[in-house]
Design brief:
The complex is a heterodimer of chains A (about 325) and B (about 500). With about 325 residues, chain A is α/β, with parallel strands linked by helices. Chain A folds into two domains: about 1-120 and about 245-315, 3-Layer(aba) Sandwich (D-Maltodextrin-Binding Protein, domain 2), CATH 3.40.190; about 120-235, Periplasmic binding protein-like II (D-Maltodextrin-Binding Protein, domain 2, 3-Layer(aba) Sandwich). Helices cover about 45% and strands about 20% of the residues of chain A. In chain A, strands 2-1-3-10-4-11 form a six-stranded mixed β-sheet. In chain A, strands 7-6-8-5-9 form a five-stranded mixed β-sheet. In chain A, β1, α2 (about 40-55) and β2 (about 60-65) form a beta-alpha-beta unit. Chain B has about 500 residues and is mostly helical. Chain B has one domain (about 5-500). Helix content of chain B is about 75%, strand content about 0%. Chain B has helices at about 5-15, 15-35, 40-50, 55-80, 90-100, 105-140, 145-160, 165-180, 205-225, 235-240, 245-265, 270-285, 300-315, 315-320, 330-340, 350, 355-385, 390-410, 410-430, 435-455, 465, 470-500; strands at about 185, 190. Chain B has a two-stranded antiparallel ribbon. In chain B, β1 (about 185) and β2 (about 190) form a beta hairpin. In chain B, α9 (about 205-225) runs antiparallel to α18 (about 390-410). Chain B is globular. The N and C termini of chain B lie far apart (about 70 Å). The chains are: A alpha/beta (about 325), B mainly alpha (about 500). At the A-B interface, α2, α3, α7 and α8 of A face α3, α15 and α20 of B.
Chain lengths: ~325, ~500
């Protein structure tokens, strides 16, 4: 039934453009490149609910899953740049064009950034039996056994894998990646001890660490998190290390400046609500609002950093 | 708290009016969603998830879990009636279940399904109550090495599932493996057989394949047959009951199916589907009359149905005790827990013992609901078959298209279903069975992934496959399966000689 409602909403959205000062005059649709029920979908649904009040129009979530979120990006790129179609995206979509062929979009030129919502730092974790407690211990161990230590990832060229490669390169050690299909199997592998190390989402790592089934060595964000002040960052051992994927909203390029401003401000307003922040935190995301302007200046850097890491993989 | 008193507390909590209501809603919706082609429990849970934001956590989880195992059950109803598996794990039920329906015995098949599912579900719950931590550790002890060997066993067993000759089954199996390879290679990130279509980067969907192979050919074949009205089926209570002979024949398959399902369900991955297929092929192997399989043998319904329903219960064990979801559907249920601020993880069972036990209790209540709900409904379901084909078949095709489209909002998937449907039809015409193809599709890529990972982590040392006891057992069983025709052939020869002398 909801699918039907979505279809009707979609039809409404494609109605003629109205003047930007009346924006928004119709429902806005938010495209999500992942299946209903997952982390990204939950963000979309909770945020869209809170956006309705400041915008005065409902925001309808539409799932267009497939190909690691790139299908949704290509779809949004083709939409009319009137602010009535936006996409909830994440860091992996920025490297999509490098990883996959023919995705049909450029993450910088084809989109206008609207706002960043959250970031989701990763955690470098170890099986307790490995007997190491810190990044320093890991570097020491890896130097003693070059090329013998495996770490589990969510798949080839995922942010987890790229963060691991960045770590190897910057620390001058040789860690071998063991790709799994998604985050859950990689957590299983390190908990069971099949693979001694892993880079996983912080949310999953914290739950397991509380149960003592794995040990968090460090997190990948630049600075420590207010929520977890005891968790050290990798950058404390390896200065300059930063690999935190983030979640943000984009619109097709050439969208009117004031429309983007309206959207960006509405997201900013929604992100002040405690209930929304609580839901996001429970899902393992760190609320981290950035305006469209701010994001526009950061995305090219992020694209470059992650793309370089991906290209370094190919060169290997 | 010890188990009995925790369980009693759990039952008290689960039997509150609110929780009873949501449990009922969950299993009823689950059955309906299972019946609708293409819309599996996963989509159902995903759609219902936002609704549960506003419920108390126990009611929310009880409802979503009910939807999951209700869907597992509902999927078999259409398998039997119209050869349309609602989920991959009920595809194997099509083989004999639908044949029974064609012989006018749909009511018996549905009745046996309901009862076998209930027995199996209950057993799975009892095991969960008593041995959760133990079973969780067993699941954790599985490494890529063991997975590979289990998959190999499953793959080989599924070759014997088909009706046709073994050579044809193996052919279908290999085609299935090839279909499974489409998409991104897990180990290298390389795209295989995607031909530049972004829709294929993540591979073909399992529902797409199952719908195409089973549902579409059935409709095409039905459309070309002259009969405009299906077999009239009487449904009095008396017609629903299996004969005494059938009860006797179904008993052991239920026992074996349940044990197998309980064990394999706890494995993260595709435990539920493998359990169903393996249970079926075991029954076919041990049967004195294997030729009856595929032609409406009651064992062929009882075994896989008890296996997949037992597995659907034990699949919760790794999810709840370790906080590691075994499937995408389980990941959604974990997601629902997180939304309510309950962190899933190894400490869930102790930190939220009340919720854990309430959930276990609700499983049993839900299974009882399913039984009570579905026995009277058998008559209604069977009457569905009396709808003239000219209305029934277009409706089925329409439902398949809508269901498939609703998963990804992609018309590409509809074309794939139709293409696979034509393949399925031509296979049917030439005497190939579709079940091994589906199994190859599911297991092939998993087997490859685990083989490569096992060898990578062990530096190319093949001996690990015989060093691990679990793997060794599976490999020995595989060998036995391969040699079985030889052994039974020899035995018959010896017996014949003895009789001649």
């Amino acid at each position: 039934m909801r699918r039907f409602a979505l279809a009707v909403a979609a039809l409404l959205v494609t109605a003629p453009i109205v003047a930007a000062q009346d924006y928004p005059a119709q429902p806005i649709r938010m495209i999500v490149g992942f299946n209903p029920g997952g982390g990204m979908d939950t963000i979309a649904r909770t945020v869209s609910e809170k956006l309705a009040a400041p915008l005065g129009q409902p925001v309808v979530v539409e799932n267009r899953p497939g190909a690691g979120g790139t299908i949704a990006m290509a779809f949004t790129k083709e939409a009319r740049p009137d602010g009535y179609t936006i996409v909830l995206s994440e860091t992996s979509a920025l490297i999509g064009p490098v990883v996959y062929e023919n995705v049909g979009y450029d993450p910088i030129t084809d989109f206008t950034p609207v706002a960043q919502l959250t970031s989701a730092p990763l955690a470098l974790v170890a099986n307790p039996k490995l007997g190491i407690d810190s990044v320093n211990d890991l570097i020491e161990l890896a130097k003693a056994k070059p090329g013998e230590l495996f770490y589990a990832t969510s798949g080839v060229a995922t942010v987890q894998h790229l963060a691991g490669e960045m770590l190897s390169n910057m620390a001058g050690i040789e860690l071998e990646d063991a790709p799994f299909q998604g985050g859950a199997p990689s957590v299983t592998a390190v908990v069971s001890g099949e693979v001694p190390l892993a880079i996983v989402s912080l949310g999953a790592a914290v739950q397991q660490a509380e149960g003592g089934t794995l040990k968090i060595l460090a997190i990948t964000s630049e600075e420590r998190l207010a929520q977890f002040p005891d968790l050290p960052t990798i950058s404390e051992t390896i200065p300059g290390f930063s690999a935190s994927p983030s979640q943000f909203i984009l619109a097709p390029s050439n969208a009117p400046v004031d429309v983007i401003k309206t959207l960006s401000d509405a997201v900013g307003k929604a992100m002040e609500e405690q209930a929304l922040l609580d839901t996001l935190t429970k899902q393992g995301f760190i609320p981290d609002y950035k305006s469209g302007e701010q994001l526009a200046s950061e995305i090219p850097n992020a694209v470059k950093r992650w793309t370089d890491a991906t290209n370094a993989l190919d060169a290997k | 708290m010890d188990i009995p008193s925790s369980l009693v507390a759990g039952f008290v909590q689960a039997a509150s009016l609110t929780n009873l209501f949501y449990c009922f809603v969950g299993v009823t919706l689950g059955t309906l969603i299972g019946v609708l082609p293409g819309i599996g429990a996963m989509l159902g849970i995903a759609l219902l998830l936002p609704v549960t934001f506003h419920l108390p956590p126990d009611a929310a989880i009880i409802m979503l879990a009910g939807l999951y195992y209700g869907g597992e059950y509902g999927g078999s109803i259409t398998s039997i009636l119209v050869n349309l598996p609602g989920s991959a794990s009920s595809a194997v039920t099509c083989l004999d279940g639908h044949q029974m329906a064609k012989q006018g015995r749909a009511a018996v098949a549905l009745y046996v399904t309901a009862v076998a599912s209930f027995i199996a579900g209950t057993t799975g719950i009892i095991l969960m109550t008593l041995f959760s931590p133990l079973i969780a550790n067993f699941a954790l002890s599985f490494t890529s090495v063991d997975y590979f060997s289990v998959m190999l066993l499953g793959l080989l067993a599924s070759a014997s599932v088909g009706r046709g000759s073994p050579v044809k089954s193996i052919g279908a199996l290999i085609v299935g493996v090839l279909f499974g390879i489409i998409g991104t290679d897990v180990n290298t990130g390389m795209q295989r057989y995607t031909f530049g279509y972004p829709e294929l980067i993540t591979g073909l969907g399992i529902t797409v394949i199952a719908m195409g192979l089973f549902g579409v050919p059935e409709v095409i074949a039905g459309a070309e047959s002259k009969a405009n009205r299906p077999v009239a089926q009487r449904v009095r209570i008396r017609d629903m009951l299996p004969t005494r002979d059938e009860v006797r024949r179904a008993t052991m398959p239920v026992v074996r199916g349940t044990s197998l399902g309980s064990l394999l369900g706890a494995l993260p991955g595709t435990g539920v589907t493998i359990a169903a297929f393996l249970a079926y092929s075991i029954e076919k192997k041990v049967s004195h009359t294997p030729e009856r399989f595929g032609h409406g043998a009651i064992e062929g319904v009882a075994a896989p149905e008890s296996a997949n329903n037992a597995a659907a219960q034990t699949a919760f064990i790794p999810t709840l005790t370790l906080g590691i979801p075994g499937s995408a559907t389980m990941a959604l249920i974990l997601g629902a827990l997180m939304i309510h601020g309950i962190p899933p993880g190894p400490q869930f069972m102790t930190a939220h013992a009340d919720l854990f036990w309430a959930l276990v209790a609700s499983f049993w209540i839900g299974n009882l609901f399913l039984l009570v709900l579905n026995i009277p409904l058998v008559g209604l379901w069977v009457r569905l078959l009396q709808v003239p084909y000219k209305y029934l078949f277009p409706t089925i095709i329409c439902l398949i298209c809508v269901g498939i489209y609703s998963v990804n909002l992609s018309t590409f998937d509809i074309w794939v279903v139709l293409g696979i449907g034509l393949l399925g039809y031509s296979m049917r015409m030439t005497g190939f069975d579709c079940a091994p193809l589906l199994m190859g599709f599911i297991l092939g890529p998993l087997m490859e992934e685990n083989l490569r990972r096992a060898l990578m982590l062990n530096r190319g040392d093949f001996s690990v496959f015989i060093k691990s006891p679990i793997s060794l057992t599976c490999l020995l069983l595989t060998a036995l399966l391969l040699l079985w025709p030889l052994i039974s052939g020899l035995r018959q020869k010896i017996r014949a000689r003895a009789a001649a002398q």
